[in-house]
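Field notebook, page 499. I keep forgetting to write these up properly, so this time I am using the form the group agreed on. The chain and the ligand, NDP, are recorded exactly as supplied. Prediction of the bound pose follows.
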Amino acid sequence: MSSTHGPIQSHDYQMLIDGHWVESHSGRRYERHSPAHDVLVGTYPEADAKDVDIAVAVARRVFDESDWPHTSGAERAALLGKVSVLIHENAEELALIETLESGKPLNQARDEMGWTCAIWDYAATLARHLRGDAYNNLGPDMLGITVREPIGVVGLITPWNFPLLIISQKLPFALAAGCTCVVKPSELTPGTTLRLGELLLQAGLAPGVVNIVTGFGDPVGQRLCDHHDVDMISFTGSTRVGKQVVAASQGNLKKVTLELGGKNPQVLFPDADLDAALDAVVFGVYFNMGECCNSGSRLLIHQDMADKFVPRIIEHAKRVKVGDPLDPATKVGALISDAHLKKVMGYIESGRKSAARFRLGGNRLITDKGRFVEPTIIDHVTADMPLACEEVFGPVLSVIRFKDESEAAGIVNSTMYGLSAAVWTRDLDRALTMARRIHAGTVWINTFMSGPQELPFGGYRQSGLGRELGRFAAEEYTELKTIQLHMGPRTSWWAGLPR
Ligand code: NDP
């Protein structure tokens, strides 16, 4: 496969500690090849636990001794706004890095830059609105005050599927609260996070407030979670590693927030706007190659309409162009790695061995470079199959039929996940009844995967702990302190006893 975008350049990155661009203490480095083009696109320092200790010590000192946690909300808001402008000004370069490291379509990566700027702008508004409460109802001699204080040193650990977008669901809110941070991007896609580090310094952020350490999950992420000088971990990634994060964090009982996997259903009733649903089903499962926590990987379809509607989905899915992510017509780019390709193909093979029926795709595309999988539709999947309850994280749609609302709700809630879901119907009563029965952090009605920054996002059950975005997003990075102020004479402990 040849690139339509000219020669692909590689970049040698360093990591950011205390405002300096540095190598790992061991001097070791590692490489990343584009998963779509198999060419070198970046080399990075390979940090280990000692580098994490150095970065945490810096973040601790800056939190405990510098002015940063005490800056005004207005100053922090101004800084976050500048970062948004700089991301916008560098969007084309950032999008290209994202595409080359992750394999996602460049046009989509460009869109993600716009969404990222919107999050930094939104976090800026929260920086000015962090506040506590006053309690003037505690009697004539008592005033109660609660104040929000930054929680301290925060470790931010991110995955490879939306590298800049996901760090931007964490970092600006941690900064809005006044925390200091050590960031660990996925080893596969650190480029845009490191470029973001440059933009933060350019915007005027003081050295050491944000430190970025590159390397592998274990030891870098593991050491961050173990570290007793880290007060909180905000993690996005798989449920499997999320459990390791919780276990490793127990040593100092640090706060942990988790954004984990999903097996998200779109539930389709016959009275829905079927043209709109058709588009959303295809977008929902093939967006970002299906490597998406919100991927609409399960279609629950009413049995009365399935035989007529599934062929329409197949026709629509055939229009999805798979291939070079630099080609503007491409909708589905490359999967992230050989290991992940193997996992996705394993799920497809499990479907072949079952009673489910393949209606589209089901194969790796034969190309001389890269790792591409055909948009796949598997019909007559039943709720007990791995394809119905495990996260495939690839372009694979499992179609499950149901007979009524109760059965649909039961199937929706039958996995360990609870991230998101969609209900398609014109019947308001049915829509809201379903929305209330579904155990998920987000339920869309007659739309899919929209995400205004004002609305909180996160998972029920094994899809996560805590919420990102929304008006409480900055509060996640704070402690709540109670101050009690007594006025006038205080009743003595000895009052009422004989003298
Ligand atoms: P992983 O869980 O494999 O990795 C996530 C991050 O954790 C990476 O930076 C990884 O580093 C790091 N890590 C690995 N091992 C450890 C460890 N022992 N301790 C601490 N950190 C560690 O997830 P993926 O990167 O494969 O991302 C895909 C997953 O992310 C999917 O399950 C998806 O659903 C989920 N996700 C959830 C979202 C949500 O908002 N709910 C959004 C996006 C993705 P390294 O890369 O070096 O291994």
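OBSERVATIONS:
- The CA atoms of residues 48 and 218 lie 8 Å apart.
- The chain is about 35% helix and 20% strand.
FOLLOW-UP: compare against the apo run.
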